[in-house]
Specification:
225 residues, 8-stranded antiparallel beta sheet, 25% strand, binds zinc ion, transmembrane helix, transmembrane, RskA_C, Anti-sigma K factor RskA C-terminal domain-containing protein, membrane
Length: 225
């Protein structure tokens, strides 16, 4: 079965008359229909949606008059525009510079100090048997709440991902703080969480299995004091 001539398919896509043989073939050939669909998309993308209309004569006359006016005024206009633009540019640059200075000051409120909160407690994270990872956890009181900063450097080969938990000192209940990626992370604490009860910082190896509970595979652990 020979496929339709590409030119015939293009005609169909353009909405022109096609030969009965082409139309007949299109009825039974998916490939050629696809080709027409593709060509139609192209045509629709190119075609001007509404037919072009000649504007009334007075519109042209108006446009021509404006062009003439603009041509006549151009040398002067260019001159004055140039003169006006330089001071504007300078003002713009000054404003941008001020914004940069303000931005830097916002990042460094104390002239370059780290905007850390007040340290409430720290924990030394010791590796659990079978693991070789040690670090620290620092509980900070910041303007917008308490934050636990966890540092667990080193290349720890985990099976899944690392999750940070606060566990009650009797090890019966626990709260997930989030996923630790990289060597360190900061985790917001729930506002009402009693850290004297949930004082054990735990970092676990969690398999990617959709189970939100602790895997039981703790990497490192320490108590806030
Ligand atoms: Zn075909």
């Amino acid at each position: 079965m020979p496929h339709s001539d590409p030119e015939d398919l293009a005609l169909v896509a353009l909405g022109e008359d096609a030969s009965p043989a082409t139309l007949e073939h299109l009825d039974i050939c998916v490939l050629c229909r696809d080709e027409v669909a593709t060509l139609t998309d192209v045509v629709d993308g190119v075609r001007v949606p509404a037919p072009l209309q000649r504007p009334p004569a007075r519109v042209w006359e108006g446009i021509e008059a404006q062009i003439e006016q603009a041509r006549a005024a151009e040398p002067i206009a260019l001159e004055s525009r140039r003169r006006r633009r330089l001071p504007l540019l300078l003002v713009g640059a000054a404003a941008a510079g001020a914004a940069v200075v303000l931005g830097v000051q916002a990042i460094l409120p104390d002239g370059g100090a780290d905007p850390a909160g007040v340290e409430l407690a720290t924990a030394t994270l010791d590796p659990l048997p079978g693991w070789d990872a040690a670090g620290t956890a620092v509980l900070e009181d910041r303007d917008d709440g308490r934050v636990l900063r966890v540092d667990l450097p080193g290349d720890v080969p985990v099976e899944g991902y690392r999750e940070v938990w606060l566990i009650s000192t009797d090890l019966t209940s626990l709260v997930s703080l989030g996923v630790l990626t990289g060597d360190s992370g900061s985790f917001d604490l729930p506002a009402d969480l009693d850290v004297t009860e949930f004082a054990v910082v735990d970092v676990s190896d969690e398999p990617v299995n959709g189970d939100p509970t602790h895997s039981g595979a703790s990497i490192a652990r320490g108590e806030l004091a």
